[in-house]
Amino acid sequence: MDVRVERTRRSLQDALLELARERPLDEVTIAEIAARAGVNRSSFYQHYSDKETLLADALDAAAEAAAAMLPDRYEPPSGPPQALVVFLQHVDEHAELYRSVFGPSGSATVLARLRARIDAIVRAGFVSAASKAYDGLPLDIIAAGITGSALGVVEAWLMRDPRPSVDVGAAWVWRALLGPGADWA
């Protein structure tokens, strides 16, 4: 992608995330996003058809940035991987935005994009791990189970009031993914 296009998209994504920290997303206008990003409305529409697509890209970029921290070769960590902690830090910083995405009137489009990104990360990680733990199961089934479990725990952590720390949330996700056979002593 052209560097200028990427820079403009990143500016629009950052502007949306900043504005969504200040007030509910449905109150944020495209004109405000463009102004905060330092571009005009027509530039916004050159890159995005609507606010929902911009939001999907912004959350997708956050998941991808965290995934970039994963090692090329899987080594089982003793606790939650740093990439998971970094992703949950992003979720925590933008908690109201993520609550609106996961909530009952949230965006199916944005959530589907987030699910697809995490599914792709899980698939890549599982292939690099070369684990025999799921022999005989198709990769799409394994990835769907892990992705669904992870997002379910993230949503439950996110909706708690008060919300526990990022470290607690990451430990919950990690423990749920490892399952009942893991040694928690």
Give unreliable regions as ranges.
none
CATH topology of the largest domain: Tetracycline Repressor, domain 2
Relative helix content: 55-70%
- What's the CATH C level of the largest domain? Mainly Alpha
- Quaternary organisation of the protein chains: single chain
| Rg for CA atoms | 18 Å
Mean of residue pLDDT values: 92
Choose one word for the global shape. globular
Structural class, from helix and strand content? mainly alpha
Q: Give the percentage of residues in beta strands.
A: under 5%
SSE string, helices as H and strands as E: HHHHHHHHH
Span between N and C termini?
48 Å
Number of helices: 9
DNA-binding region: 29-48
Pfam family, one: TetR_N
GO molecular function: DNA binding
InterPro entries: Homeodomain-like_sf, HTH-type_Tx_Regulator, HTH_TetR
Which descriptors would you attach to this protein?
Arc Repressor Mutant, subunit A, Tetracycline Repressor, domain 2, Homeodomain-like_sf, globular, DNA binding, HTH-type_Tx_Regulator, mainly alpha, 9 helices, 185 residues, 69% helix
Walk me through what this model shows.
The chain has nine helices and no strands. The radius of gyration is 18 Å and the shape is globular. By secondary structure, it is mainly alpha-helical. α5 crosses α9. The protein folds into two domains: 1-48, Homeodomain-like (Arc Repressor Mutant, subunit A); 51-178, Tetracycline Repressor, domain 2 (Orthogonal Bundle).
